[in-house]
Structure formats: C-alpha cells, structure tokens
Amino acid sequence: MTRAVITHGPRPDAAADVPDIDMTTWLAGLELPSPVLTASGCAAAGRELDQFFDITTIGAVVTKSIMLNPRSGRPTPRMAETPSGMLNSIGLQGPGIDAFLDKDLEWLRARGARAVVSIAGGSVDEYTRLASKLRHVTDVAAIEVNISCPNVEDRGQVFACDPVAAAEVITAVRRNTNPGIPVLAKLSPDVTDIVAIARSVVDAGADGLSMINTLLGMVIDTDTMRPALAGITGGLSGPAIRPVAVRCVYQVHAALPEVPILGMGGIRTGLDALEFVLAGASAVSVGTVTFHDPGAPARIARELAVALAERGFESFEQAIGHAHRAPDPAPASGGPVAGHGHTLDADAPDTAVEAGVEG
Fold first, then answer.
1. Is there a catalytic annotation at residue 149?
2. Architecture of domain 14-334
3. Averaged over 264-275, what is the pLDDT?
C-alpha cells in the first residue's frame, strides 16, 4: 500500500472558496448542514481525521461497522492495491458494542460531531441485540445497517443478496430502534437486481438506503502464484467502482424516488460527488480517498458547492435526481442534435437498437 499523505488539509482561506449556496440536505428526516459524510470503515470513528479538518463541519461521521462482541478480523495480508482501487479483507475488526459506546461514541459526543452508527451482525439476533443496545443512547443521528455480512443462519449467505433475509434484518433493527432515529440499509452491488433488494428493505421499515458497499473481488500474486489476501477474496473500493455505484443509485432512485439515498463508491472530487447527487443521492459518503488525502471530505464538500454554483443551482437539494428530468425539447426538423453535430432524420432506422446495443 502507498503511504498516506499527511500534508493535505483545509487551507486557511478555504472558506473564501465556497460560493453562497445552501448546502443543507435531509437524509431520512435527518437535517444535515453538509451533504458530505465519511464512509464506514475508512476512518474508524473520525478521531484520526479530526487533525486534518474539523469533523463537525461535514454532514456526519459514519463509524466503522460495529459488532456485538470484540472481533480480531481476518489474518494478514488483508489489503491489496488494484488499478484505481483497492481490496480489503479486514473482517470487521472491532472492539465490540460496549467498548465502542464507552470510547468512540463518547468521543464523538464530546467533540460535537454528528454520528451515524454502522452495525453488522452474523445473525438476525445479533442485529436485534445491537439495535437494542443503541435504543436509549443519546446523540446517535442515524443507524446504518451493514447487511453485507455472511448470514451464519443460512450457511454464509450474505443478507444483502437475498430480499427475504435482508428484510428480516431491517425489520428487527427498526422494531428495536428509537422511532425518531433513521435506519439506513446498506446495500451490496453483488446482486442481479438491486431494485428488488431496495424494495424489500424499504417495505421492511428502512427509512433510507446507503449504496453501495464494496464489490467482491480477488487478486492473485503472480510471483507467489497464490491469492494476495489471506482471506482469498476482499471488498473492492475506490474510483474503479464509481460507475457501478452511480448506476445503482440511478436505478433505485428511478424506481423509488421518495426514498432517501446516501451514495458512495469511489468519490474523490466534488464532480464525482455531483454524479451521485444528479443520479438521486440526497447525500454522499467519502471513503477510500481519505487513505491518501485525509482532508478529502472537507475538500470535496467545497468542490461540490462550487460545481453546483457553476451549474446554476441555488441549493444542493435542487440538484438531487436532476439527471432524471424529462428530455430537452427536440430541435426543429432537420436541425442539429445537441452534442452530436448531425441532423436527426425521423425516418432513419435506430441503428443502435437494430445492432442490439443497449443504453
């Protein structure tokens, strides 16, 4: 792995670069002053990033997924670089929910940061007990339910890959969570129809969706001629997965336009974040980029504001789902088609369709 760059951070004049645009957003009933959050698993509970920028200025810190009991994770090596991305096979290492509440959440509370607590479990019962632990805890802005964990009750089936199993987890969490706390279901892209999974968890009580989680991948070391990761497979993240993530957000927003989406997957610039917003995301999470630019969440928030202002938006919310708007009016007969430099012949065959090309 490359070493982290520790020289990045907000410039003294950073605020002067931000245009006068309302960046407030709502995520499943939760009001956020900024649409940029951290991504689970990339910054623990935010303590490490706080030395590079003020974590209270971003939308929220999404914590590393926490399980009921302490967990050591998978053996090393458990990270590998790939073109435009990386694989991780950490294995949900963590201190367990009790230590998390005493140390990490207490620090976030004292710091004044908004905390979205990510939870993970190997069974419906574990998710139920985690939600019950958080039910009466103050200063939890939302709960993100990581359902991309293997289901030990079904021989390793990942909850998020089965609509019934996913719905069972969300039903249990929603039933045992304070009604005023939003529950976000984190979806996996490793499915045939992500809209079907989204519908199932929304019907089960999810207030919003986090998408997407990493893609399952693998690297083989051509020197040792063995898998590069001790765990064999790992989760692929980084810019390489962004087109997949944008597609997933676009499809789900088209099918469920009223459901708030926290979009993520390979965001490294404000324009990357804008893609997710135009596709239908109400907020975005920034993850892998922080490994080499720990100040990225604050930087991306500034860049996103500039990008919105340059495109004529007066507020962030005006841009949500803007890519789904109706097509622009067709030009007069015989006129040029915008962006293509040729005329449109109404009698001409649709060569793309005839050739079997799908849009």
1. yes
2. Alpha-Beta Barrel (3.20)
3. 98
